[in-house]
UniProtKB/TrEMBL annotation, chain A:
The active site is at residues 54, 100. It comes from Azospirillum picis. The gene is purL. Residues 207-359, 576-708 form the PurM-like C-terminal domain. This is Phosphoribosylformylglycinamidine synthase subunit PurL. Keywords: ATP-binding, Cytoplasm, Ligase, Magnesium, Metal-binding, Nucleotide-binding, Purine biosynthesis. Belongs to the FGAMS family. Pfam families: AIRS, AIRS_C, FGAR-AT_linker. Substrate binds at residues 99-102, 121, 245, 317-319, 540. Residues 16-58 form the Phosphoribosylformylglycinamidine synthase linker domain. Its EC number is 6.3.5.3.
Automatic annotation (TrEMBL), chain B:
SUPFAM superfamilies: Class I glutamine amidotransferase-like. Pfam families: GATase_5. The gene is purQ. This is Phosphoribosylformylglycinamidine synthase subunit PurQ. Its EC number is 6.3.5.3, 3.5.1.2. CDD domains: GATase1_FGAR_AT. PROSITE patterns: GATASE_TYPE_1. It is found in: Cytoplasm. The active site is at 86 (nucleophile), 203, 205. Pathway: Purine metabolism; IMP biosynthesis via de novo pathway; 5-amino-1-(5-phospho-D-ribosyl)imidazole from N(2)-formyl-N(1)-(5-phospho-D-ribosyl)glycinamide: step 1/2. Part of the FGAM synthase complex composed of 1 PurL, 1 PurQ and 2 PurS subunits. NCBIfam families: FGAM_synth_I, PRK03619.1. GO terms for molecular function: phosphoribosylformylglycinamidine synthase activity.
Length: 741, 229
């Protein structure tokens, strides 16, 4: 390869090419104005990915700025690779959730696998050893011809990557809805722990300091992946398969160990992974944050393929690569560590005082442009938006003609795709490696993972109820945060902070932009009221195919802390004769409920409102009871209402419930999805103490029954056996996945 | 008891093994890097779980040819106890310390769950603290745990007391399922002829403290400490 051969592959830079690269006419003109000349082909590629929606957050930034991001616990909020939160004793928890939606639809195994790989790198880049992975998945209708293939590939991809790197995948959520038929959502979250005085940031410093490339070699995979993720899908999206990267979890595992080993030395000035837009975004962001220039000479960069051009190298999204700024003279120390782990290591450039990004290769300069003006000129739009019209609540006429037995209704609900057991999925994930997992999927409202070598534990949850968000984005945003906060409280953890993964349709449509604006407003209100700030996040827009958008899905990843993993409460009933209590007020809100959709066949009404003050009061109360050792089992009352919550606790423990608290009540009481509620099982001798504390705290608590037998039963006899519920609950997904296509 | 844990690129359960051994024996085991050619003088060698070399060829096949494995084999021949767990079972089997082979799980899917096992032979330092026929629960977490050997060898293994653990179903309330991977004759773990080497797919090191939900793995490490101290 030579300069001449490179030039032969380049295309003339015109408005046409800029459009092909995803830039609008105004954006292209802006680039011409900043440079005062026509960009080179390489520069055009670099500018287009820097200004893509995916990298620039151009549609969302103006709204994201309104979110609360600070608090006494926050060490580092949004803007770095991941958020950092203090958990005491000189320890920090570092976490983020990120989407890999577009690639996962096109190539589910590699799309999901590299999603996990990318989010792991965001976390260990900052000096944290990853201790847990989570994921939030949304698939299309089970009847859609692609759904089975996508579920199978995504789950295998997440497992294939996470299992190999040896980070336990401890929980998540999975929904099915026809709105995701053309755009599935794969949101992956990693949580790591580090020492507060050993956290690594990305801002470059020190003119002349060496710029080092480590990890896998660079190939031609993923070129313009960030551009793909910034546009709607059409019929020909399948042709974008070459823009999906391929993951190598073995190399990632070595990279984790090598980077953490290097971080124990004093060699590092700054470090960042090469994620979306690869070497472009890592070099530009690192130099930009440090207010410096950077000069790279790409000839010595480890390459997997022959005859690569500077354009291809700068835009490649090959996986498992990091960029490090070293202190001068520390190259040998660093190289020895990467040699030990058999990873590529190359000094590819140095920092300069010019403020320019300079790319050299084959003896010529292919890019020489100022970083700050280009970064700062990344577009920022205040796109037109329409508020979502309020839905009116459903009245009692929806129950006309409903006469099914409670046992039959429960059996149907437990076998419906959203409530059916996801065991088929989570058993493909190694949830135990590390030996610190206290609770994983299905055992508690939040995963609980002990901090390695200590007694304290981190609790983790992912939450969002997209059907609520569609009906009312503001209320849905509030609910997603409140539910995350509630799930952490339900295990006994003190909620600390969240990461938000905003998945929406095309922001150029005012209706969709309105959903985004509403959700951000709701999230912000809830974060403020619950002292639960946003410390990291990711936005995925253009989740539309042929004009059909997904449900607005602001997925919330919440993290909390507890002093001792062993005080955590799980959902399973553990003893016969425990008293079952409802905490919180039940009004019977049936709009947008699972019952309404699955049993009455109607997706309508307003979602249940969240009273954030009540939420906080009830959650603090439940957490307090758990810390005092008064709670045997604890579960938040969410999808399906109180009766479904109790049945889930019964199934998890294999112990039934004798219910007296519902006598004479309307079905709304059983299935309503009012917020801020929990179901607890407590020993009989603890009931009086709990009721006394409830009275003092002003929290409504009522007795629903007691744990007993092998069925849900009441004064009228058995309602439904656990065996029947279990068959419905455990049967659906394996049967669906093994059915003929 | 002095123990060494062999670490390959891609091993990922060495920390679990360290924690279990340290908790029971009170001594930190040595970690030996795969490129080392010498082992310290130890009473027990553990080959831990993970994905050595990514398992990109055949699980355990690359690691079995690593320089350190020649040393492990030599020590095993001298009677040093060797415990191979999960990927470690695959590696020591590929290295010829145990008969048979481990193939992809029958349903081609990775499986992680708590699994019921029956202790088949207690005449070894690994299993002496269990009762014959005792049902224990260890987690499994593997994609290639489908043990295979021919019918004649299964018969011989049974006859010589070389089957250590079998997968069993259980009438326990929460998870009654048996064989998770299609292994021949439900074999979960086997000894060599002298019962100085044990390979098994399940993870006793992830069932040693209350946090794990059960401590059925602890007697294995207690037995080793008792026999080798």
């Amino acid at each position: 390869m030579s300069a001449e051969a490179t030039r032969a592959q380049e295309r003339p830079v015109t408005a046409e090419l800029a459009k092909e690269f995803g830039l609008s006419a105004e954006e292209y003109q802006n680039a011409l104005d900043i440079l005062g000349r026509t960009p080179t082909f390489t520069e055009m590629g670099i500018i287009s990915v820097m200004w893509s929606e995916h990298c620039s957050y151009k549609s969302s930034k103006v709204w994201l700025k309104t979110l609360p991001t600070t608090g006494p616990q926050v060490i580092c909020g949004p803007g770095e690779n991941a958020g950092v939160v203090d958990i005491g004793d000189g320890d920090a928890v570092i976490f983020k959730m990120e989407s890999h939606n577009h690639p996962s639809y096109i190539e589910p195994y590699q799309g999901a696998a590299t999603g996990v790989g990318g989010i792991l790198r965001d976390v260990f880049t900052m000096g944290a050893r990853p201790i847990a992975n989570m994921n939030a998945l949304r698939f299309g209708s089970p009847d859609h011809p692609k759904t089975r293939h996508l579920v199978s590939g995504v789950v295998a991809g997440i497992g294939g990557y996470g299992n190999c790197v040896g980070v336990p995948t401890v929980g998540g959520e999975t929904n099915f809805h026809p709105a995701y038929n053309g755009n599935i959502l794969v949101n992956a979250m990693t949580v790591g722990v580090a020492k507060t005085d050993r956290i690594f940031y990305s801002a470059a410093a020190g003119i002349g300091n060496p710029v080092v490339y480590v990890g896998s070699k660079t190939g031609r995979d993923g070129i313009h992946g960030a551009t793909m993720a910034s546009a709607e899908f059409t019929e020909d999206s399948e042709e974008k398969r070459p823009t999906v990267q391929v993951g190598d979890p073995f190399t990632e595992k070595l990279l984790i160990e090598a980077c953490l080993e290097l971080m124990e030395t004093d060699a590092i000035v700054a470090i960042q992974d090469m994620g979306a837009a690869g070497l472009t975004s890592s070099s530009v962001e690192m130099a930009g944050k440090g207010g410096l220039g950077i000069e790279l000479t790409l000839d010595s960069l480890p390459m997997r393929e022959e005859a690569m051009t500077p354009y291809e190298i700068m835009l490649s999204e090959s996986q498992e690569r990091m960029l490090i700024i070293l202190k001068p003279g520390r190259e040998e120390v660093a190289k020895a560590i990467f040699d030990k782990w058999e990873l590529d290591f190359a000094v590819i450039g140095h920092l300069t005082d010019t403020g320019n990004l300079v790319i050299k290769m084959y003896g010529e300069t292919w890019c020489d442009m100022p970083i700050a003006p280009v970064s700062n000129a990344a577009p920022e739009y205040n796109r037109p938006w329409e508020p979502t019209p309020k839905a009116s609540d459903v009245d009692d006429s929806v129950f006309d003609g409903y006469s099914e037995s409670l046992g039959d209704t429960l059996t149907k609900l437990f076998g419906c795709p959203d409530l059916a057991s996801k065991r088929w999925i989570w058993e493909q994930y190694d949830s135990l490696v590390g030996g610190d997992t206290r609770f994983m999927s299905g055992q508690a409202d939040a995963a609980v993972v002990r901090v390695p070598g200590q007694t304290k534990a981190v609790a983790i949850t992912t939450d969002c109820t997209p059907r609520y968000c569609l009906a009312d984005p503001v209320e849905g945003g509030r609910q997603a945060v409140a539910e995350a906060w509630r799930n952490l409280s339900a295990v006994g953890a003190l909620p600390l902070a969240i990461t938000d993964n905003m998945n929406f349709g095309n922001p150029e449509k005012p209706r969709i932009m309105g959903q985004f604006v509403g959700a951000v407003q709701g999230i912000g209100e809830a974060c403020k009221a619950l002292d639960f700030p946003v410390v990291s996040g990711n936005v995925s827009l253009y989740n539309e195919t042929n004009g059909e958008a997904i449900l607005p899905t602001p997925a919330i990843g919440g993290v909390g802390i507890m002093p001792d993993a062993m005080i955590a409460a799980g959902i399973a009933f553990r003893n016969e004769g425990d008293v079952i209590l409802a905490v919180g007020e039940t009004k019977g809100h049936i709009g947008q409920s699972i019952f309404l959709r699955e049993i009455l066949g109607r997706e309508e009404g307003a979602p249940p409102p969240v009273d954030l003050a009540v939420e906080r009061r009830n959650g603090d109360f439940v957490r307090g009871l758990i810390h005092e050792g008064l709670v045997v089992s604890s579960h938040d009352a969410a999808d399906g209402g109180l009766i479904v919550t109790i049945a889930e606790m019964a199934l998890a423990g294999g112990i039934g419930a004798y219910l007296t608290g519902f006598d004479g009540q309307h079905v709304r009481t059983l299935f309503g999805e009012d917020q801020g509620r929990y179901v607890l099982a407590v020993r009989p001798d603890a009931v009086a103490a709990v009721q006394e504390k409830a009275k003092a705290a002003g929290v409504p608590v009522s007795v629903l029954g007691e744990t007993r037998g092998t069925a849900l039963s009441g004064r009228g006899g058995d309602i439904v056996s656990l065996k029947r519920l279990r068959e419905a609950n455990e049967g659906w997904l394996p049967a669906y996945m093994s059915a003929e296509l | 008891m002095k123990a060494a844990i062999v670490v390959f690129p891609g091993s990922n359960r060495e920390r679990d093994a360290v924690a279990a051994l340290e908790a029971v024996s009170g001594t930190k085991p040595h970690l030996v890097w795969h490129r080392d050619t010498e082992l310290p003088k130890v009473d027990l060698i553990v080959v831990p779980g993970g994905f050595s070399y990514g398992d990109y060829l055949r699980s355990g096949a690359m690691a079995a040819h690593s320089p350190i494995m020649r040393e492990v084999k030599a020590r095993a021949d001298q009677g040093v106890r060797v415990l191979g767990v999960c990927n470690g079972f695959q590696i020591i089997t590929e290295a010829g310390l145990l008969p048979g082979a481990l193939m992809r799980n029958g349903d081609l899917k990775f499986v992680c769950r708590v699994q019921h096992l029956r202790v088949e032979n207690t005449d070894s330092p690994f299993t002496k603290k269990y009762a014959k026929g005792q049902i224990v629960r260890f987690p499994v977490a593997h994609g290639d745990g489908n043990y295979w050997t021919d019918a004649e060898t299964v018969k011989r293994l049974d006859g010589e007391g070389q089957v250590a653990f079998r997968y069993v179903g259980d009438d326990a309330r929460t998870d009654p399922r048996g064989n998770p991977n299609g292994s021949v004759s439900d074999i979960a773990g086997i000894f060599n002829a002298k019962r100085t080497v044990l390979g098994l797919m399940p993870h006793p090191e992830d069932a040693v403290e209350a946090l794990h939900g059960n401590t059925d793995g602890k007697p294995m490490f207690e037995g080793l400490v008792e026999a080798l101290s």
